[in-house]
Protein backbone atom coordinates (compact mmCIF):
# COMPACT_ATOMS: atom_id res chain seq x y z
CA UNK A 1 0.00 0.00 0.00
CA UNK A 2 1.04 3.61 -0.51
CA UNK A 3 1.30 5.19 2.92
CA UNK A 4 -0.15 8.68 3.27
CA UNK A 5 0.84 11.41 5.74
CA UNK A 6 -2.22 10.48 7.78
CA UNK A 7 -1.10 6.83 7.87
CA UNK A 8 2.27 7.85 9.27
CA UNK A 9 0.58 10.11 11.83
CA UNK A 10 -1.56 7.17 12.95
CA UNK A 11 1.52 4.94 13.27
CA UNK A 12 3.29 7.70 15.21
CA UNK A 13 0.43 8.02 17.70
CA UNK A 14 0.17 4.25 18.18
CA UNK A 15 3.92 4.08 18.86
CA UNK A 16 3.79 7.02 21.27
CA UNK A 17 0.83 5.82 23.33
CA UNK A 18 1.49 2.07 23.11
CA UNK A 19 -1.91 1.08 21.72
CA UNK A 20 -5.09 2.77 20.48
CA UNK A 21 -8.64 1.72 19.68
CA UNK A 22 -10.33 2.39 16.34
CA UNK A 23 -12.59 4.91 18.09
CA UNK A 24 -9.59 6.91 19.32
CA UNK A 25 -7.88 6.79 15.93
CA UNK A 26 -11.07 7.69 14.07
CA UNK A 27 -11.98 10.58 16.33
CA UNK A 28 -8.68 12.38 15.91
CA UNK A 29 -7.57 11.40 12.40
CA UNK A 30 -10.82 10.98 10.44
CA UNK A 31 -13.32 13.08 12.36
CA UNK A 32 -16.46 11.92 14.12
CA UNK A 33 -19.04 10.25 11.90
CA UNK A 34 -22.70 10.66 12.84
CA UNK A 35 -25.40 7.99 12.90
CA UNK A 36 -28.94 9.37 12.96
CA UNK A 37 -31.30 7.31 15.12
CA UNK A 38 -35.03 7.69 14.55
CA UNK A 39 -37.86 7.17 16.99
CA UNK A 40 -39.85 4.54 15.10
CA UNK A 41 -42.95 5.24 17.17
CA UNK A 42 -42.94 8.85 15.98
CA UNK A 43 -41.57 9.12 12.42
CA UNK A 44 -42.11 12.89 12.36
CA UNK A 45 -39.77 13.50 15.30
CA UNK A 46 -36.22 14.72 14.51
CA UNK A 47 -33.47 12.07 14.50
CA UNK A 48 -31.05 11.83 17.39
CA UNK A 49 -27.37 12.18 16.31
CA UNK A 50 -24.99 9.55 17.72
CA UNK A 51 -21.19 9.55 17.23
CA UNK A 52 -19.71 6.45 15.58
CA UNK A 53 -16.35 5.37 14.17
CA UNK A 54 -15.86 6.69 10.64
CA UNK A 55 -16.08 3.93 8.01
CA UNK A 56 -12.95 5.27 6.29
CA UNK A 57 -11.06 4.67 9.54
CA UNK A 58 -12.22 1.06 9.67
CA UNK A 59 -11.11 0.45 6.08
CA UNK A 60 -7.74 2.13 6.55
CA UNK A 61 -6.93 0.23 9.74
CA UNK A 62 -7.75 -3.03 7.95
CA UNK A 63 -5.29 -2.10 5.20
CA UNK A 64 -2.59 -1.26 7.75
CA UNK A 65 -3.21 -4.58 9.50
CA UNK A 66 -3.25 -6.61 6.26
CA UNK A 67 0.10 -5.06 5.30
CA UNK A 68 1.63 -5.98 8.68
CA UNK A 69 2.12 -2.38 9.80
CA UNK A 70 -0.15 -2.80 12.83
CA UNK A 71 -1.56 -5.75 14.68
CA UNK A 72 -4.91 -6.07 16.38
CA UNK A 73 -5.30 -7.52 19.85
CA UNK A 74 -8.28 -8.36 22.00
CA UNK A 75 -8.58 -6.65 25.36
CA UNK A 76 -8.96 -8.77 28.47
CA UNK A 77 -12.35 -8.12 30.05
CA UNK A 78 -14.82 -10.05 32.17
CA UNK A 79 -17.44 -11.87 30.11
CA UNK A 80 -20.16 -10.11 32.11
CA UNK A 81 -18.91 -6.74 30.81
CA UNK A 82 -19.29 -7.70 27.16
CA UNK A 83 -16.79 -7.30 24.36
CA UNK A 84 -14.23 -4.48 24.55
CA UNK A 85 -12.95 -2.74 21.40
CA UNK A 86 -9.81 -4.10 19.76
CA UNK A 87 -6.47 -2.47 20.42
CA UNK A 88 -4.17 -1.59 17.54
CA UNK A 89 -0.45 -1.82 18.27
CA UNK A 90 2.60 -1.30 16.09
CA UNK A 91 4.51 -4.18 14.52
CA UNK A 92 8.28 -4.05 14.19
CA UNK A 93 7.87 -3.61 10.44
CA UNK A 94 5.47 -0.70 11.09
CA UNK A 95 7.99 0.84 13.50
CA UNK A 96 10.74 0.46 10.89
CA UNK A 97 8.63 2.23 8.23
CA UNK A 98 7.77 4.99 10.70
CA UNK A 99 11.44 5.46 11.69
CA UNK A 100 12.46 5.76 8.04
CA UNK A 101 9.73 8.35 7.46
CA UNK A 102 10.70 10.40 10.53
CA UNK A 103 14.44 9.98 9.94
CA UNK A 104 15.10 8.55 13.41
CA UNK A 105 15.80 5.23 15.09
CA UNK A 106 13.09 2.72 15.95
CA UNK A 107 13.64 3.43 19.65
CA UNK A 108 13.09 7.15 19.11
CA UNK A 109 9.61 6.51 17.70
CA UNK A 110 8.55 5.20 21.13
CA UNK A 111 8.05 1.64 19.86
CA UNK A 112 8.88 -1.17 22.26
CA UNK A 113 8.92 -4.78 21.13
CA UNK A 114 7.66 -5.86 24.54
CA UNK A 115 4.97 -3.35 25.44
CA UNK A 116 4.36 -3.79 29.17
CA UNK A 117 1.78 -1.00 29.18
CA UNK A 118 -0.67 -3.37 27.47
CA UNK A 119 -0.88 -5.68 30.47
CA UNK A 120 -4.51 -6.38 31.48
CA UNK A 121 -4.39 -4.47 34.79
CA UNK A 122 -3.00 -1.31 33.15
CA UNK A 123 -4.57 -1.01 29.71
CA UNK A 124 -7.60 1.03 30.90
CA UNK A 125 -5.26 3.60 32.43
CA UNK A 126 -3.20 3.61 29.22
CA UNK A 127 -6.27 4.30 27.06
CA UNK A 128 -7.44 7.10 29.33
CA UNK A 129 -3.98 8.71 29.16
CA UNK A 130 -4.13 8.32 25.38
CA UNK A 131 -7.50 10.10 25.28
CA UNK A 132 -5.95 13.10 27.02
CA UNK A 133 -2.83 13.11 24.83
CA UNK A 134 -4.83 12.81 21.61
CA UNK A 135 -7.21 15.56 22.72
CA UNK A 136 -4.24 17.83 23.34
CA UNK A 137 -2.70 17.12 19.93
CA UNK A 138 -6.08 17.57 18.24
CA UNK A 139 -6.62 20.96 19.94
CA UNK A 140 -3.17 22.18 18.90
CA UNK A 141 -3.74 21.03 15.32
CA UNK A 142 -6.85 23.25 15.05
CA UNK A 143 -4.81 26.47 15.33
CA UNK A 144 -1.34 27.69 14.44
CA UNK A 145 -0.13 29.82 17.36
CA UNK A 146 0.64 27.08 19.93
CA UNK A 147 3.21 24.30 19.56
CA UNK A 148 3.68 21.07 21.49
CA UNK A 149 7.40 21.15 22.27
CA UNK A 150 7.70 17.87 24.19
CA UNK A 151 5.59 14.90 25.21
CA UNK A 152 7.03 12.30 27.58
CA UNK A 153 4.94 9.20 28.23
CA UNK A 154 5.13 7.10 31.40
CA UNK A 155 8.07 5.02 30.18
CA UNK A 156 10.21 8.12 29.61
CA UNK A 157 9.00 9.58 32.92
CA UNK A 158 10.08 6.42 34.75
CA UNK A 159 13.61 6.67 33.35
CA UNK A 160 13.99 10.40 34.03
CA UNK A 161 12.40 10.64 37.47
CA UNK A 162 13.75 7.51 39.15
CA UNK A 163 17.09 9.15 40.04
CA UNK A 164 15.50 12.17 41.73
CA UNK A 165 14.21 12.04 45.30
CA UNK A 166 12.04 14.72 46.88
CA UNK A 167 12.39 15.67 50.57
CA UNK A 168 9.01 15.84 52.34
CA UNK A 169 9.17 17.46 55.77
CA UNK A 170 6.79 16.55 58.61
CA UNK A 171 5.66 18.76 61.50
CA UNK A 172 7.97 16.95 63.92
CA UNK A 173 11.01 17.90 61.83
CA UNK A 174 11.54 14.47 60.27
CA UNK A 175 12.12 14.17 56.53
CA UNK A 176 10.93 11.45 54.17
CA UNK A 177 12.50 11.03 50.74
CA UNK A 178 9.94 10.26 48.03
CA UNK A 179 9.88 9.79 44.28
CA UNK A 180 7.29 11.24 41.96
CA UNK A 181 6.11 9.59 38.73
CA UNK A 182 3.46 11.57 36.81
CA UNK A 183 1.57 9.81 34.03
CA UNK A 184 2.99 12.16 31.40
CA UNK A 185 4.85 15.43 30.92
CA UNK A 186 4.43 17.93 28.11
CA UNK A 187 5.58 21.44 27.31
CA UNK A 188 3.75 24.07 25.26
CA UNK A 189 5.01 27.31 23.77
CA UNK A 190 3.79 30.07 21.53
CA UNK A 191 5.06 29.65 17.97
CA UNK A 192 8.18 31.76 17.46
CA UNK A 193 8.85 32.16 21.19
CA UNK A 194 11.30 30.27 23.39
CA UNK A 195 9.47 30.29 26.72
CA UNK A 196 8.13 26.84 27.60
CA UNK A 197 5.11 26.12 29.80
CA UNK A 198 5.63 22.84 31.64
CA UNK A 199 2.75 20.51 32.51
CA UNK A 200 2.68 17.30 34.54
CA UNK A 201 -0.31 15.06 33.86
CA UNK A 202 -2.15 12.90 36.37
CA UNK A 203 -4.80 10.49 35.08
CA UNK A 204 -7.08 9.36 37.91
CA UNK A 205 -9.41 6.43 37.32
CA UNK A 206 -10.93 6.57 40.80
CA UNK A 207 -9.07 3.49 42.04
CA UNK A 208 -6.95 5.45 44.53
CA UNK A 209 -8.23 6.43 47.98
CA UNK A 210 -8.76 10.18 48.18
CA UNK A 211 -7.69 10.46 51.81
CA UNK A 212 -6.40 7.94 54.37
CA UNK A 213 -5.82 8.01 58.13
CA UNK A 214 -2.56 6.15 57.47
CA UNK A 215 0.00 8.77 56.32
CA UNK A 216 2.05 6.08 54.56
CA UNK A 217 -0.88 4.62 52.62
CA UNK A 218 -1.17 5.33 48.92
CA UNK A 219 -3.74 8.10 48.54
CA UNK A 220 -4.50 11.22 46.54
CA UNK A 221 -3.72 13.40 49.55
CA UNK A 222 -0.24 11.89 49.80
CA UNK A 223 0.31 12.50 46.09
CA UNK A 224 -0.60 16.20 46.36
CA UNK A 225 1.66 16.47 49.40
CA UNK A 226 4.52 15.08 47.31
CA UNK A 227 3.78 17.50 44.46
CA UNK A 228 3.89 20.48 46.83
CA UNK A 229 7.29 19.33 48.10
CA UNK A 230 8.41 18.71 44.49
CA UNK A 231 7.87 22.35 43.50
CA UNK A 232 9.70 23.56 46.60
CA UNK A 233 12.73 21.40 45.78
CA UNK A 234 15.41 21.67 43.10
CA UNK A 235 14.04 18.65 41.19
CA UNK A 236 11.90 20.63 38.66
CA UNK A 237 14.91 22.75 37.75
CA UNK A 238 17.12 19.69 37.28
CA UNK A 239 14.54 17.79 35.25
CA UNK A 240 12.90 20.49 33.14
CA UNK A 241 15.02 23.60 33.58
CA UNK A 242 12.38 25.58 35.46
CA UNK A 243 10.61 25.69 38.82
CA UNK A 244 7.38 26.80 37.12
CA UNK A 245 4.77 24.38 35.90
CA UNK A 246 1.24 23.10 36.40
CA UNK A 247 -0.22 19.76 37.41
CA UNK A 248 -3.19 18.74 35.26
CA UNK A 249 -5.52 16.11 36.67
CA UNK A 250 -8.08 14.36 34.48
CA UNK A 251 -10.40 12.09 36.44
CA UNK A 252 -13.45 10.02 35.53
CA UNK A 253 -16.54 11.94 36.67
CA UNK A 254 -17.61 15.33 38.00
CA UNK A 255 -18.35 13.75 41.39
CA UNK A 256 -14.87 12.27 41.67
CA UNK A 257 -13.36 15.58 40.56
CA UNK A 258 -15.22 17.46 43.30
CA UNK A 259 -13.79 15.08 45.89
CA UNK A 260 -10.23 15.48 44.58
CA UNK A 261 -10.62 19.27 44.53
CA UNK A 262 -11.74 19.22 48.16
CA UNK A 263 -8.83 17.04 49.34
CA UNK A 264 -6.30 19.06 47.32
CA UNK A 265 -7.60 22.35 48.70
CA UNK A 266 -7.34 21.09 52.30
CA UNK A 267 -3.67 20.19 51.78
CA UNK A 268 -2.79 23.56 50.28
CA UNK A 269 -2.98 23.06 46.50
CA UNK A 270 -3.67 26.32 44.68
CA UNK A 271 -3.15 27.78 41.22
CA UNK A 272 -0.61 25.17 40.06
CA UNK A 273 -3.24 22.43 40.16
CA UNK A 274 -5.88 22.21 37.43
CA UNK A 275 -8.72 19.65 37.25
CA UNK A 276 -11.20 18.39 34.68
CA UNK A 277 -12.97 15.10 34.02
CA UNK A 278 -13.30 12.71 31.13
CA UNK A 279 -17.07 13.22 30.84
CA UNK A 280 -16.39 16.83 29.80
CA UNK A 281 -13.21 16.21 27.82
CA UNK A 282 -14.72 13.46 25.64
CA UNK A 283 -18.27 14.79 25.24
CA UNK A 284 -19.21 15.14 21.57
CA UNK A 285 -21.28 18.23 20.88
CA UNK A 286 -23.58 18.47 17.87
CA UNK A 287 -24.06 21.79 16.12
CA UNK A 288 -26.88 22.27 13.61
CA UNK A 289 -25.75 22.79 10.02
CA UNK A 290 -29.08 23.30 8.30
CA UNK A 291 -31.61 20.72 7.10
CA UNK A 292 -32.05 18.33 4.22
CA UNK A 293 -34.77 16.08 2.87
CA UNK A 294 -34.63 12.44 3.91
CA UNK A 295 -35.61 10.60 0.71
CA UNK A 296 -36.73 7.42 2.51
CA UNK A 297 -38.97 9.08 5.09
CA UNK A 298 -39.86 12.05 2.87
CA UNK A 299 -39.37 14.51 5.70
CA UNK A 300 -36.87 17.26 6.35
CA UNK A 301 -34.35 16.52 9.05
CA UNK A 302 -31.64 18.60 10.71
CA UNK A 303 -28.03 18.03 9.75
CA UNK A 304 -25.41 18.20 12.48
CA UNK A 305 -21.67 18.72 12.69
CA UNK A 306 -19.87 16.86 15.47
CA UNK A 307 -17.43 18.87 17.57
CA UNK A 308 -15.09 17.60 20.25
CA UNK A 309 -14.21 19.87 23.22
CA UNK A 310 -11.08 21.95 22.74
CA UNK A 311 -8.73 21.00 25.57
CA UNK A 312 -6.74 24.23 25.19
CA UNK A 313 -9.31 26.91 24.47
CA UNK A 314 -12.55 25.73 26.09
CA UNK A 315 -13.22 26.67 29.76
CA UNK A 316 -13.25 23.16 31.24
CA UNK A 317 -10.64 23.41 34.02
CA UNK A 318 -11.26 24.00 37.74
CA UNK A 319 -8.79 25.17 40.40
CA UNK A 320 -8.97 23.94 44.03
CA UNK A 321 -8.55 27.32 45.71
CA UNK A 322 -11.49 28.88 43.84
CA UNK A 323 -14.84 28.19 45.49
CA UNK A 324 -16.96 30.20 43.02
CA UNK A 325 -16.96 27.45 40.39
CA UNK A 326 -15.10 29.56 37.82
CA UNK A 327 -13.79 27.57 34.85
CA UNK A 328 -10.52 28.28 33.06
CA UNK A 329 -8.90 27.69 29.67
CA UNK A 330 -5.58 25.88 29.53
CA UNK A 331 -4.05 28.44 27.17
CA UNK A 332 -4.51 31.40 29.56
CA UNK A 333 -0.77 31.71 30.40
CA UNK A 334 0.11 31.46 26.70
CA UNK A 335 -2.28 34.30 25.89
CA UNK A 336 -0.62 36.47 28.55
CA UNK A 337 2.79 35.59 27.07
CA UNK A 338 1.66 36.82 23.64
CA UNK A 339 0.60 40.18 25.04
Describe this structure in words.
34% of the residues lie in helices and 23% in strands. The longest helix has 19 residues, at 123-141. Helix 2 packs across helix 3 (55-66). It has helices at 5-17, 22-29, 55-66, 92-102, 123-141, 154-161, 220-232, 235-240, 254-267, 278-281, 332-338; strands at 20-21, 33-37, 48-52, 70-73, 87-90, 146-152, 166-169, 175-178, 184-190, 197-203, 246-251, 273-277, 285-294, 299-307. It has 11 helices and 14 strands. The strands form 5 sheets. Strands 6-9-10-11-12 form a 5-stranded mixed sheet, sandwiched between helices. A 3-stranded antiparallel sheet has the order 1-5-4.
Sheet with the most strands: spatial strand order: 6-9-10-11-12
| Beginning-to-end CA distance, first to last residue | 47 Å
Largest sheet: 5 strands, mixed
Radius of gyration: 22 Å
Mean pLDDT, to the nearest integer, reads 87
Q: How many structural units, i.e. domains? A: 2
| Number of distinct helices | 11
* Apparent shape: globular
Strand tally? 14
Bin the helical content: 25-40%
Compressed to H and E, one letter per element, the order equals HEHEEHEEHHEHEEEEHHEHEHEEH
Poorly predicted residue ranges: none
Structural class: alpha+beta
Q: Which strand-content bin applies to the residues?
A: 15-25%
Report a brief summary of the structure:
The chain is of the alpha+beta class and 339 residues long. The protein has helices spanning 5-17, 22-29, 55-66, 92-102, 123-141, 154-161, 220-232, 235-240, 254-267, 278-281, 332-338; strands at 20-21, 33-37, 48-52, 70-73, 87-90, 146-152, 166-169, 175-178, 184-190, 197-203, 246-251, 273-277, 285-294, 299-307.
Amino acid sequence: MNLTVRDYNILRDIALFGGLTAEQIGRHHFGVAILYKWDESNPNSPPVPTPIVHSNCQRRMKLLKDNNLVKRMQQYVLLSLGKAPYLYTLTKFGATCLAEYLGCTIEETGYRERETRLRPNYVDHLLMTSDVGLSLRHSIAQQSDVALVTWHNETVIARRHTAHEIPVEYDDGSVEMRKLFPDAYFALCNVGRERKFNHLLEVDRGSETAESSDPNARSWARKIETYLAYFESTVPERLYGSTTGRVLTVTTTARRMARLLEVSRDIGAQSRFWFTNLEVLMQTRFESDGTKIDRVRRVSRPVYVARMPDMLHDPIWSLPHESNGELHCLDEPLRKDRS
